[in-house]
Task: inverse folding
């Protein structure tokens, strides 16, 4: 038998000869080469369906195969393979005119991370009713929630590309969104990027009141408070346990 | 064929540990979530157990795990690993073993099975079941890996025969002898994948009927059936691919009938992992498994009646 090292190297590099000690035609070894690439590109196509839709199935498969050869999985949980894919797309020269594509892929990756994250129990809604208590509370995004900020209208692009009749967004401003989960549904909460920066700030502030003060000069404190209450009610934000009751 | 009475099943540790019912089972796919949650009144399949790929449920939380929790309330769960790499040159990955143990505990697994194959090397995971040579040295290594796994998990496993596309010039053990020796050394049991037998037989040029006739059915704790694809080499010879994306073939059905006739009823899983159809379309195959199991049970009862 060839060493598993020789077998493994030849699997990911079609230019390598068939490992010595393997009986039969090259095509038999090629089945394993094909299985590895096809199973992993299929896994990526499931994780990045809108990117597939945007590039077309054939182009996506070829791109993903290149990614698989350069960044084969280190983790055995293929359901979470592809963290490096958005970065790979960003560095892929032939796609440089599709400048928004890496962020779109990142949005899809983020959806997957949110889908598989652990949840924290939702809080009682009355916190959002008691303003004084609320302002003194330290708030955080729940583990199954992520914030994405983009220079491009990624949320609109994602929405538009879910179907075949794609309409290009009218305004090419940057977009941000919070992605979170309610039961078995993924929810997008789009917002202007400065609100997203406020939410990230919130994570590091001792209380909501402290975080709002930082934004008073930008004149968005009132809107930020409204957004905070909506996200609390939706379960996207939660109070940290140490100061809650 | 001469009917053979099933040998006593207590001889093997693994078979004692398997508590899967001897009925038809189906792989748990999120695509069929409504059926598994009992919310799909159109699908009237009688499924006796669910099988999961362990690696699909190693995440921290989320709806897929919630589905597994719900299914485990209502069905015995067979946990089938695809990434442990028992045939690998390296020892089982400790982190993977820990994750596996967590999944087994979470769904109160009725059975755990893995493959005679490898899939990882030096930190790269290939997501495929890769072949190994059958030599004395390979046997010793796989036996050590199985023993370490069983010690860590605190339970024996069922080892599945592989689907092969090639063999190695230096293999000097027969596959069945290799499997039997592994059960002897480690106390593991076997999972007989009949589609894998058909695929390997066509690809490597042996007779699937003789293989099945020689297979130690008294060591088998579960059976898999699935569909395969046929491709052709440039020289025109057919190669079968273990695709799990098509209905079960006629040859696999007739071999299943023969196995159940000899061994009596066993847990039989219908594997469908690709091109997954609506669950109702799997009903004919599930019914066929049930029918064969029913015939095997009747035959066994007849046999007992004669013996009395």
Result:
């Amino acid at each position: 038998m060839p060493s598993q090292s020789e077998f493994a190297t030849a699997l990911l590099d079609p230019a390598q000869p068939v490992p010595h000690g393997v009986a039969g035609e090259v095509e038999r070894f090629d089945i394993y080469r094909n299985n590895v690439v096809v199973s992993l590109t299929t896994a990526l196509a499931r994780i990045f369906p809108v990117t597939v839709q945007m590039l077309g199935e054939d182009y996506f498969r070829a791109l993903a195969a290149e990614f698989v050869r350069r960044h084969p999985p280190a983790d055995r949980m293929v359901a979470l393979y592809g963290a490096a894919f958005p970065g790979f797309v960003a560095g892929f020269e032939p796609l440089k005119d599709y400048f928004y594509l890496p962020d779109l892929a990142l949005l899809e990756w983020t959806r997957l991370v949110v889908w598989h994250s652990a949840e924290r129990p939702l809080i009682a809604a009355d916190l959002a009713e008691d303003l004084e208590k609320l302002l003194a509370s330290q708030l955080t995004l729940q583990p199954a929630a992520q914030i994405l900020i983009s220079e491009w209208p990624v949320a609109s692009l994602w929405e538009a590309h879910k179907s075949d009749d794609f309409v290009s967004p009218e305004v090419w401003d940057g977009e941000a969104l919070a992605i979170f989960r309610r039961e078995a549904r993924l929810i997008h909460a789009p917002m202007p990027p400065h609100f997203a920066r406020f939410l990230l700030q919130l994570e590091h502030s001792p209380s909501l009141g402290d975080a709002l003060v930082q934004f008073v000069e930008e004149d968005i404190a009132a809107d930020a408070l409204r957004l905070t209450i909506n996200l609390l009610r939706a379960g996207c934000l939660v109070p940290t346990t140490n100061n809650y009751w | 064929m001469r009917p053979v009475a099933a040998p006593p099943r207590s001889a093997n540790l693994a078979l004692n540990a398997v508590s899967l019912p001897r009925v038809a089972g189906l792989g748990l796919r999120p695509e069929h979530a409504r059926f598994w949650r009992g919310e799909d009144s159109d699908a009237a399949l009688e499924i006796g157990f669910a099988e999961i790929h362990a690696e699909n449920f190693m995440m921290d939380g989320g709806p897929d795990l919630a589905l597994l929790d719900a299914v485990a309330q209502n069905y015995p769960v067979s946990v089938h690993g695809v990434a442990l790499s028992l045939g690998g040159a390296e020892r089982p990955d400790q982190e993977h073993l820990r994750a596996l143990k967590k999944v087994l505990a979470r769904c109160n697994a009725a059975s755990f099975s893995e493959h005679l194959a490898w899939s990882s090397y030096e930190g790269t995971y290939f997501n495929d079941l890769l072949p190994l040579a059958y030599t004395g040295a390979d046997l010793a290594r796989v036996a050590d890996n199985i023993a370490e796994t069983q010690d860590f998990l605190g339970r024996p496993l069922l080892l599945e025969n592989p689907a092969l596309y090639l063999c190695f010039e230096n293999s000097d053990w027969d596959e069945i002898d290799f499997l039997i020796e592994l059960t002897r050394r480690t106390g593991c049991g076997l999972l007989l994948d009949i589609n894998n037998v058909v695929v390997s037989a066509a690809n490597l040029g042996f007779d699937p009927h003789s293989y099945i006739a020689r297979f130690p059915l008294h060591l088998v704790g579960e059976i898999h059936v699935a569909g395969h694809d046929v491709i052709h080499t440039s020289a025109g010879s057919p190669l079968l691919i273990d695709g799990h994306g098509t209905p079960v073939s006629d040859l696999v059905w007739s071999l299943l009938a023969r196995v159940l006739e000899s061994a009596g009823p066993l847990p039989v899983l219908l594997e469908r992992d690709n091109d997954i159809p609506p669950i109702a379309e799997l009903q004919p195959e599930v019914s066929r498994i049930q029918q064969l199991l029913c015939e095997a049970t009747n035959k066994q009862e007849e046999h007992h009646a004669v013996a009395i």
About this structure: Chain A has a mean pLDDT of 88.
